[in-house]
Inverse folding.
């Protein structure tokens, strides 16, 4: 059986936590942060968790993660 290739875009955007959840960096945190309030910046600082059907689809793109 040949090896399954990992999706390049998915491996850059998602990682698997110790408990097996998919985590990702939230968007809107790279620039123009002065106009965003502190509450919003704190919320964007935290990692996002991907679950449900979308999470299952992304796990297929990361076969060895």
């Amino acid at each position: 059986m040949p090896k399954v290739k990992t999706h390049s875009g998915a491996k850059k955007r998602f990682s698997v936590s110790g408990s097996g959840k998919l985590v990702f960096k939230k968007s809107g945190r790279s620039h123009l942060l002065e106009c965003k309030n502190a509450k919003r910046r704190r919320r964007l600082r935290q990692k996002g968790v991907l679950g449900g059907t979308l999470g299952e689809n992304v796990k297929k793109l990361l076969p060895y993660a």
Remarks:
- The mean pLDDT is 95.
